[in-house]
Amino acid sequence: MKMTSDNIIFALDIILSAILLAIIFTKLYLRYLGKEEVVVTPASEFTLLEKDEKEVVLQKEISFKNVGKSCATIMDAISRPQLPFEQYDKVEAWGIAERKGAPREDDYFESVLIQKKGDNPDEITLLANIILIGRKGLSINEALKEMPDISIDFIWLETGRTPCNYKKIILRLSGDEIRKLANV
């Protein structure tokens, strides 16, 4: 059979139509499968985890629940207290983020999957740990006497069917609350 320009155009039309249909069906299938949708809620008030002469460790639970149709991944999490020495130089503030029930000694956040709605586990709890250390030779009780209010940025890297992106909530901790938790 001789290939004419009409036959070539017809064959190209069929190939392009097949490619277009494959793209449309793939997009419809992925839409049917759905995306992850992680809802983040602070699940508790700050509590006293430990205290000694030089430092106090406070902790807050944060609930991550996937109400979407696809698995989500929390690839990194950071708990960052906002207390520069220009604001208050008697306390050094550090933060650590970890998964409840999976503490680590190296302060590294190990990524975790949150399964789709209804699968196990579709909810996890992360911990925002805040470490306050007395500076300038002060005990922690002396250093906390004039402690100001602080904000804590809780930042995490989230991904799934959507491209990865950083998200953040801001936790507030008043100086009065810190003193009460530390029994100062």
> Any idea what the radius of gyration is?
26 Å
Proportion in β-strands? 35-45%
Number of strands: 9
The separation of the N and C termini measures 95 Å
Average pLDDT works out at: 91
Structural class by sheet pairing and helices: alpha+beta
Summarize the amount of helix as a percent range: 10-25%
Write the element-wise H/E pattern from the N-terminal end onward: HEEEEEEEHEEH
Biggest sheet descriptor: 5 strands, antiparallel
Low-confidence stretches: none
| Apparent shape | elongated
The number of helical runs is 3
Structure write-up:
The chain has 184 residues and is α+β, with helices and mostly antiparallel strands. The protein contains three helices and nine strands, in the order H-E-E-E-E-E-E-E-H-E-E-H. The strands form two sheets. Strands 1, 2, 3, 5 and 7 form a five-stranded antiparallel β-sheet that branches. It has a four-stranded antiparallel β-sheet with strand order 6-4-8-9. The mean pLDDT is 91.
